[in-house]
Amino acid sequence: MQLTPTLTGQTVQNQVREVGINPNYWYPVAWTHQIKVGTIVPVKVWEQAIAVFRDEQGQLHALEDACPHKGVALHQGEVQGDRLLCPYHGWEFNGSGDCVRIPYYPPEQKLPCAQARSYPAAEKYGIVWVFPGDPNLAQEIPLPDVPEYTDPDWLAVPIPGHFQAHFSICNENTMDVFHGFLHRDIQGWFDPELLDLQQTDSSVSAKYRISYRGWLTQFLGLSQDGSGTTTRVISVRYHYPHYFNALEGVSRMYLMRLPVGPSETRSFSLLFLKIRLPQWLVEPLRPLLARFIWHFLLKKFLDQDVEMMESEQQTYDKNRQRRYTEVNPAIIALQRVVVKQYAKFQQSSESTITSLSSSPREKPLTAIHQ
């Protein structure tokens, strides 16, 4: 659906700050290098505590971070072979969450039915992913497509992000190109103009015209005439729950969003830059170049954004009835998508519950003891 890119004042519906996620998508939970063989890492996807571990064969697994025996956090346990051992009593669980051994249980006796919920897990683009929703949908929902990841003409710069703010606030920051004023002291962009805006039930696409100048412009090769100033078009696409943006002829970024809880969000981003140097020179320097660009050129921008997003969350928490005015229609479109996706998940959940409640009921368990 094509929308008018005209800036007009609209009242923000605070509902967007209260919604949860649609869990029927892949969410990033860690960088691949953080989960080594034999290690267990605790993560959260919208308050779902999950223990992600890599068995001794290098295979990834994700289980609910609660032992079905006593509820103890499984991430405090240990990995032996392809099993995760609870730290309390040593109960052993395989990657599917089945209890396959209790060390003090008679070997000839059948094990009790004790199952830890398992989650589909995958690793791609140097990122570990978990599917927290209906596992039957995991094969149908694709991971984001990042073709630049294996293209030697692009330099990948991993960018971690951690924000004490609701994911909708973080999403709006990414869609909002009008906040270049915030970064003026580190030579950010200026004179933004919204050119085009489109929305579907699961996505928002916007194009902005922006201008750059200064030393960062020279470093990235943005200046075309040597004056140090250039104007480019940046395309921003939010496809729930992740982002992609492209700065005309210069860079592409994939921002993978992890909503941890109502006021905590993480992101796992990959920025790709065209490096105008010979491949033989760039190849051995890739890791060093990526770290330099992140720490010395980009981190300052993110730090300023984090301060604003967390300030926004803190003010909202103090008064959830306060009303706000937005003039960027891309932000309003984004809010509609976030609310619709949560409503879509709620409706599917209610349909499942209704279907189960209307099915023939089994005999009550008390009949077993009669």
Give the biggest sheet: 8 strands, antiparallel
Tell me the CATH topology of the largest domain.
Answer: Naphthalene 1,2-dioxygenase Alpha Subunit, Chain A, domain 1
Q: Please count the beta strands (DSSP E, at least 2 residues each).
A: 20
> Cα-atom Rg, whole angstroms?
24 Å
Query: Within the largest sheet, what's the order of strands?
Result: 1-14-15-16-17-18-19-13
Overall tally of structural domains: 2
Q: Indicate the structural class.
A: alpha+beta
What is the helical fraction, as a range of percent? 10-25%
Mean pLDDT: 90
So how many helices? Answer: 5
Uncertain spans: 361-370
CATH class of the largest domain: Alpha Beta
Give me the strand/helix succession: EEEEEEEEEEEEEHEEHEEEEHHEH
Describe the structure.
This protein is α+β, with helices and mostly antiparallel strands and 370 residues long. It has two domains: 26-136, 3-layer Sandwich (Rieske Iron-sulfur Protein); 147-335, Naphthalene 1,2-dioxygenase Alpha Subunit, Chain A, domain 1 (Alpha-Beta Complex), CATH 3.90.380.10. The chain is 22% helix and 32% strand. The chain has five helices and 20 strands. Strands 1-14-15-16-17-18-19-13 form an eight-stranded antiparallel sheet. Strands 7-8-9-10 form a four-stranded antiparallel sheet, with no helix packed on it. Strands 3-12-11 form a three-stranded antiparallel sheet, with no helix packed on it. Strand 9 (92-93) and strand 10 form a beta hairpin. Helix 1 packs antiparallel against helix 5 (329-358). It is globular and about 75 Å long. 31% of the residues are buried. The model is unreliable at 361-370 (pLDDT under 50).
